[in-house]
Amino acid sequence: MSKLPKENRFIDLSDYGRPVASVIANALKNTVFTPIHLTLLFVVSGLIAVYCILMEQYWATAFFLVLKSILDAADGELARLKKTPSYTGRYLDSISDILLNLLILVTIWYCTKGSFVFTVLAFLGLQLQGTLYNYYYVILRNRHNGDTTSRIFENDTPIALKGEKQRHVNILFGIYQLLYGVFDKIIYRLDRSAVKSTKLPKWLMTAVSTFGLGFQLLLIGLMLALGFKEFVIPFFIGYSALIFVFIAIRRYIN
């Protein structure tokens, strides 16, 4: 199930795992497995990928990073199939993502003996890229009656949905705000007029989808497997320049 109505869908380069994720979700639809179980599984897959980096098993790293992306898509897919959307799952997913991203980059820094300052910059760039993609995507989903558990402005603690506890939502939202709040604010200040934009064309969303986490992890996995581990951190620093390019394009066409 897509997050957008059919007529508004675009080619999402970060969502390459969706077909397999759909198979997994459909297989688990009538079982006791919940979306949170799949979230926990993608955390395990990410941790195995980190271990593979330490062991210099880079093709295995690429496999588990791709698997992590597939399971990351499958948890939301299962939530939509079971009609059990939750803020608990949404925030747990995002918190797990950012912590795994940090761990992956720190592990690459450790193995390459590179600059820790550059590693921090790469992490900041990685997160700002993903935040811009999510910002535009959530605007599109809200505009076209798509999935709405992600909100354009994550300012206030949401009211728990059926089947989840408000206390869990409160705790996870607080952690989410601590980890993501600064990135959300930066991207909003860079492109605050996006929420009123009349045009977010499919070709632009496809281009911005290269900032999606699935595509980012695919790039990291391939660069490691092909022997370019020293270039991972510099690449994501440089690639962040496209944030300003995409924002400029978005403003121009509106």
Automatic annotation (TrEMBL):
InterPro entries xrefs: CDP-OH_P_trans (IPR000462), CDP-OH_PTrfase_TM_dom (IPR043130), CDP_ALCOHOL_P_TRANSF_CS (IPR048254)
Keyword Membrane set for record: yes
Keywords: Membrane, Transferase, Transmembrane, Transmembrane helix
Signal sequence residues: none
Gene Ontology terms, MF aspect: phosphotransferase activity, for other substituted phosphate groups
Gene3D superfamilies named in the record: 1.20.120.1760
Transmembrane region(s): 36-54, 91-110, 116-136, 203-225, 231-249
GO terms classed as biological process: phospholipid biosynthetic process
Highest taxon in the source lineage: Bacteria
Similarity comment: Belongs to the CDP-alcohol phosphatidyltransferase class-I family.
UniProt-recorded name of the protein: CDP-alcohol phosphatidyltransferase
Organism: Croceitalea dokdonensis DOKDO 023
